[in-house]
Amino acid sequence: MTTGDPAADGLARAGAGPATRRVRVGAVTLTVEVAETPAARRRGLMDRTSLPSGTGMLFVFGRESTDGFYMYRTLIPLSIVFSRYGRVVTIQEMTPCGEENPNSCEIYRAEAAYTEAVEAPGGTFSNAGIRPGDMIEFF
User: Fold this and answer.
1) Residue 62 predicted with pLDDT over 90
2) Could you give the CA distance from residue 56 to residue 119 in angstroms, rounded to a whole number?
3) Residue 86 vs residues 24, 46, 61: alpha-carbon distances, Å
4) DSSP label at 135?
5) How large is the average pLDDT for residues 100-110?
6) Within 10 Å of residue 62's Cβ, how many Cβ atoms?
7) Domains with residue ranges and CATH for the chain
8) What's the rounded Cα separation, in Å, for the pair 72 and 110?
9) What's the whole-model pTM score?
10) How far apart are CA 32 and CA 16, in angstroms?
11) How far is the C-alpha of 119 from the C-alpha of 45, rounded, in Å?
12) Do 75 and 115 meet the contact criterion of CB atoms below 8 Å apart?
């Protein structure tokens, strides 16, 4: 089934479930899968061999968090934006971790507490000039 939105259809072909939203970070607009449950947040984008441009994953915490992200079993480079109440807190580029032991993988943390995080293909946010303080909108 297609939605008529090429980015959302790309997520569906990648094995995504039906829960998607649109996110705008500065000038970047993405169609993202929503990872609302602890299990979905733990799984994230693990084992994916590609992520279409214009897509990503939204991690919703429902409270302020300082938890870190790692790239265990994540096969592709990712950009991450941490946001708090509609403003970007931190932007980072994350590289895949080929270690067998997840505890050996680098942990990526925000510079301050955050309420959501958005992952997208590597370079998405830094190449667009996204900076802390920029607005983030969910629709």
Assistant:
1) no
2) 5
3) 10, 26, 14
4) B
5) 96
6) 8
7) 6-138 (2.60.120.1140)
8) 18
9) 0.85
10) 10
11) 9
12) no
